[in-house]
Amino acid sequence: xxxxxxxxxxxxxxxxxxxxxxxxxxxxxxxxxxxxxxxxxxxxxxxxxxxxxxxxxxxxxxxxxxxxxxxxxxxxxxxxxxxxxxxxxxxxxxxxxxxxxxxxxxxxxxxxxxxxxxxxxxxxxxxxxxxxxxxxxxxxxxxxxxxxxxxxxxxxxxxxxxxxxxxxxxxxxxxxxxxxxxxxxxxxxxxxxxxxxxxxxxxxxxxxxxxxxxxxxxxxxxxxxxxxxxxxxxxxxxxxxxxxxxxxxxxxxxxxxxxxxxxxxxxxxxxxxxxxxxxxxxxxxxxxxxxxxxxxxxxxxxxxxxxxxxxxxxxxxxxxxxxxxxxxxxxxxxxxxxxxxxxxxxxx
Length: 348
Ligand code: SAH
Ligand code: SF4
Known about the structure:
Blueprint: E1 6-7, H1 13-22, H2 27-38, H3 53-62, E2 63-64, E3 68-75, E4 81-88, E5 93-100, E6 105-108, E7 112-114, E8 129-132, H4 135-151, E9 158-161, H5 171-182, E10 194-198, H6 202-211, E11 216-220, H7 226-232, H8 241-255, E12 259-265, H9 273-283, E13 288-294, H10 308-320, E14 325-327
Parallel strand pairs: 1-2, 6-9, 9-10, 10-11, 11-12, 12-13, 13-14
Antiparallel strand pairs: 3-4, 4-5, 5-6, 7-8
Bound molecules: S-adenosyl-L-homocysteine and iron/sulfur cluster.
Iron/sulfur cluster is lined by residues 115, 117-119, 122, 124-125, 165-166, 199, 220, 341.
């Protein structure tokens, strides 16, 4: 529909300035637009009343302002979790989730439409990859909820890239998006408020470690047994556990930042005391934290979540080795926003 137009959220500030130059406009106009998009959260040129009328018209001809069309919003019964399904301009679908906590408003956003990794337990993996999201499509998810929260006199406090897709297979667009969301002249959310979750794309973990950002890193580990992990997560054959842990140690040494390990507890599969001991042995001495998430059942995966008793046993084993660990509450399960990737906060 708008495919010949540039999505305005895809542009960095220098790129926007160059576009305005091409229109014969001074560069301060680009700054005005930038502030209108990311700080006053405007959604069309007509709303940017600081601009002359003719420029608003030109912008409307040149740029698309609507990356996402909300298709459906589903609220959990307690109204603390809202999942929104969006259609992209080409009709592909993505999801994002807003979670209300006492003092936080956390967004779980997507980096791709679908995912090509094919983890057997994951609803997104069962559906396959449609395509990467552009940086603007990633940014637009946050701006959408920021506008929604602004109407309630509220604001986004945390962003987790744990929705659909593998962020480190769309690395550049994810980093560009986070850059705009973090930049104090743009959206301005503090770097430590962001978390990227990866299935373990080793070369990108190293690139990320070298990038020197303050974003948090989470690794979806789920087991340290290579055979089992390869069955659950096919890409483990390319990036096996030993190498993955080495990359994590590299990240921690390089950044002095804590890494989070995500561990979906699957009854009788990866949740025994021996499994916990093996995990503790592998990650011993690393600055880290383990998030235990009882499996969210999905149609394509015939296993059950670990009981909360066994989850506590698993957690205690880790703690006996001085490994900090939490069991997550599964948020939004009844609205299928709890499929794990649409992650929740944790409490014990
Ligand atoms: N692709 C990235 C980020 C999206 S998935 C990654 O895999 O890390 C976000 C998290 O949800 C991952 O830790 C993933 O393993 C987890 N997850 C996916 N399906 C799940 C399920 N059915 N139950 C529990 N956790 C799940
Ligand atoms: Fe992709 Fe992550 Fe789901 Fe695996 S768990 S299929 S990497 S979204």
